[in-house]
Amino acid sequence: MKLFKSSLIALALASTVANAQSIAITNATVHTMTEQGTLTNATVIIDDGVIKAINPSDVSADTVIDAAGKILTPGLIGALNQIGLVEVGAVSRTRDSSEKKADITFDVSSAFNPKSSVIPYTRKGGITTSIVAPSGGDDMFKGQAFYADLTGDFDSIVSTNTAAIVSLGAKSRGSRATTIVELREKLTNAQEKLAKAKDKKSDKKDDKKSDKKPKDSEIAMNRILEGKQPLVAYVDRATDILALIKIKKDFGINVVLAGAGDAERVAEQIAEAKIPVILGAINNLPSFDALNRSLVTPAKLFDAGVKVSYAVSGDTHNLYMLRFDAGISVANGVSKENALAAVTSNIADTFNIDAGRIAVGKRADLVLWSDDPFELSTRVERIWIEGEETSTSSRQDALRDRYTAKSDMPRAYVK
Amino acid sequence: MQKFIPSLLVAAVSVGLTGCLQSEKQAEKVEFNKNPYPSTYKALPQQTTLLRNATVLTGTGERIEQADVLMIGGKISQVGKGLSAQGAVEVDASDKWITPGIIDVHSHLGVYPSPSAESHSDGNEATQPNTSEVWAEHSVWPQDPGFNRARAGGITTLQILPGSANLFGGRGVTLLNVPSHTMQGMKFPEAPYGLKMACGENPKRVYGGKRVSPSTRMGNMAGYRMAWAEAVEYKNAWARYEADYAAGKNPEAPKRDIELDTLKGVLDGEILIHNHCYKAEEMAMMIDLSKEFGYHAGTFHHAIEAYKIADDLAKNGNCAAMWPDWWGFKMEAYDMIQENVAVVDAKAGSCAVVHSDSGTTIQRLNQEAGKVMYRANENGFAITPEKAITWITSNAARSLGIQDKTGSLEAGKRADVVVWNGNPFSVYAQAEQVFIEGAKVYDRADSKYQAVSDFSLGQQ
Question: SS3 letters for A46-114?
Fold first, then answer.
């Protein structure tokens, strides 16, 4: 993965190192999401933004936090939302996720606003990073997803060109057939060009034409073909899913299914093709493309061996509810470990990002929960993003405090 | 607007044309059927049932441990410890929780059903800002699979409302969540009609976009006021007619107006207002508007800013129906706080309601209420489960004007009951059995009691 801000990270680390405080979280129940499984009465040491040690023999740190009776998990990861791109849904001047003429090259990361009020609110749900996806425009390709943390800092973007997004399936006008044919054509053309370019390179001809700079759209297609980024396809109907499976086989690319409403009908094929699925765990109302989706769809996919991740559907402002969706999936047959993987390690694997697990050397994105992370009664007690503790307090809390305070003066004076 | 003159009225008017001399023989009095699409609902097969040994939230603010609930003849007979009844079907509900049937005061099931299809998009008559003449019940597709999904979440009663495109969107209807192939088969007997009104962004956006009034919030207010002024005249005209007729005169009946019939119903206290209204300043004006024209402002739906005027709402007897945490999708939803419901609820005489407005969250209103309870308790409130349940049962029933019939487990009320697998405010909570008027309409463990809509039947 391209870490375009690596120099910024180095700078940031340099500045934090000066007053770097190592932290030891002790006596916690730690869901590592690795082969280590769940550790009880465990200690995790954070230093320099990363996890330095797990259960070291000698616990020495600047700060020691007794987490007895509490649960430590990796920070949850949002997927395919528009956080930082939309402040108020119906206010056009606060919306930067779509562009009528957007195509596969539409990289929306420069519009990301780390100061959006949605970000601190989302941290209330224990979410530390997110795969942010553009909504795009008329083209089947909606653009490029990027990966950001939810620190609210100006250097929140971790990586760009994380995935290409394409939307297939049912259409209000015309036939879905044209889209899937067009996608195959585009991939075929790009593959041929890439092969030609390689031939020329190997011929070592000093042909000026071969030095011609490729178009941005070609570069984007090549990233998919060369396996540098996955192609995330919004698709529901089983026939479209099967078409995507064939595309993956024919072109040898990484395909991710998003939505996948009808996936349970072809679960075995999806598992066999090793295609990850991102879905809304509580989406159970039928559409003509997803007549069979139900609350047990996630369980059926997990049982078939599919790598499933959850994304909150609908409005990005609801992203904080991700953990509740995971809990509801548990009530409908998913194991607790799988449900936690669906909001942490499985998303990380799907997008090849450094997150979603508690392991030595990993980025220290961590959440300490008062209890079971999925329960409605549980709250985030503490949250760290890249080793730095951050807060869950938000504009909503300020409004609550203003209107529940005692005051003889108009509320505007209560701050 | 097109005015309808039913033939009955034409006949009556022509007879009365000669004037209203007292000596003349009175024409037949002109009266209208206020219930022309009556409920045909009949309780499903039911038997005396005794639910044993559960944690019972009565919906009246009480919690009783290890209690029994006895249902006889479709009514709650008794709630208490160690009950018995001859010939009763007994259900061991140890470790389970029992609540009244859940009521959603704001749903568009049937009028915006799934699957989403142009052919079934029947919730907004967005052709003019005042469509008080339309009735949501005339749009309901009873085969919406969403009704069955909602029943699996414990929903026994729900109000289907028109959308919020219009200042006056039309009448809402209260349905029982029983499967039926007609709307009338679901209609809650004797529930009053609602009238959907809408404040704020939606009407002014819909009509402003068409270069038609309203295009501003002041345009919204003008639209309401002009409509109510006309409705007051219409009401007075009928009052004069009825008084003259009672005095033995032979007056001419006012021309019937289907649109004004609905507004008059509100002025007469027979139809309850359900007002989509997010913002504090707008709710405050809607209360004044109701006083200006002599009706009650009813329930404010989606009342995102209810916490800012919680005292006023309680004082005026308004219910506020709220989401626990939806926000930010438009400007008027920007000032959400997670404790909104709790702040409203804390005032004496208040009526806090949690609603869904969603085919998805209607399946778990219990958890929607739970989120409020836990977040509020983290921030200085002390809300108990027995209190939180009232937001989706008895308070919701009050909002719909059916609190004397359902919404709590009190002797004599309809036996609309849910048995949960545990605490209903857990993320793992599931409704196990659902009863409507004492009849089992859903059983998670028995497919015999899991209804399937015509639409879903036989699909591959």
Answer: EECCEEEEECCCCCCCCEEEECCCCEEEECEEEEEECCCCECCCCCHHHECCECCCCCCCCECHHHCCC
Block means of pLDDT (10 residues each) for chain B, 460 residues, are: 44 44 79 97 97 98 98 98 96 98 98 96 97 98 98 98 98 98 98 98 96 97 98 98 97 98 98 98 98 98 98 98 98 98 98 98 98 97 98 98 98 98 98 98 98 96
| Nearest neighbour of A376 by CB, restricted to B328, B336, B370 | B370
Domain-ending residue, one of A334, A355, A376: A355
Looking at residue B199, which CATH number applies to its domain? 3.20.20.140
Indicate whether B166 and B138 sit together in one domain.
yes
Give the CATH number for residue B47.
Answer: 2.30.40.10
Confidence of residue A209 (pLDDT cuts 50, 70, 90): low
**Would you say how long chain B is, in residues?**
460
Contact list in B for residue A397 (CB cut-off 8 A) is 337, 379
Same domain, B117 and B264: yes
Asked whether the beta carbons of residue A399 and residue B337 sit closer than 8 angstroms, the reply is yes
- Give the end of a domain, one of A355, A372, A391: A355
B145 and A CB contact within 8 Å: yes
What is the 3-state composition of chain B as percent helix, strand, coil, each rounded to the nearest 5? 30, 20, 50
The complex's ipTM works out to 0.93
**What's the order of all strands across the beta sheet hosting A76-81?**
A76-81, A127-132, A141-149, A157-167, A231-235, A255-259, A277-279, A308-310
The CATH code of the domain that includes A18 is 2.30.40.10
| Number of structural domains chain B divides into | 2
Chain A residues in contact with chain B using a Cβ-Cβ cutoff of 8 Å: 87-91, 117-118, 282-288, 291-292, 315, 317-318, 320-321, 324, 327-328, 330-331, 374-377, 379, 396-397, 399-400, 403-404, 411
B442 and B383 fall within a common domain: no
A374 vs B307, B363, B427: nearest CB: B427
Q: Within this chain, do residues B88 and B212 fall inside the same structural domain, yes or no?
A: no
Q: Domain range spanning residue A221?
A: 76-355
Domain extent for B417: 43-100+407-454
Pick among A292, A400, A411 to test the B interface (most B CBs inside 10 A): A400
Whether A2 and A124 share a structural domain? no
Q: Report the residue from B328, B343, B360 with minimal CB separation from A282.
A: B360
CB contacts of A264 in chain B (<8 Å) are none
Q: Are the beta carbons of A90 and B360 separated by less than 8 Å?
A: no
Quick one: tokens of A311? 């994304």
DSSP assignment of B58-120 equals -SSS-EEEEEEEEEETTEEEEEESS---TTPEEEE-TT-EEEEPEEEEEE-TTTS-SS--GGG
**Nearest chain B Cα distance for residue A404, angstroms:** 8
- Are residues B95 and B109 located together in one domain of the fold? no
Let me know whether A339 and A366 are in one domain: no
- The answer to whether residue B380 neighbours chain A at the CB level (below 8 Å) is yes
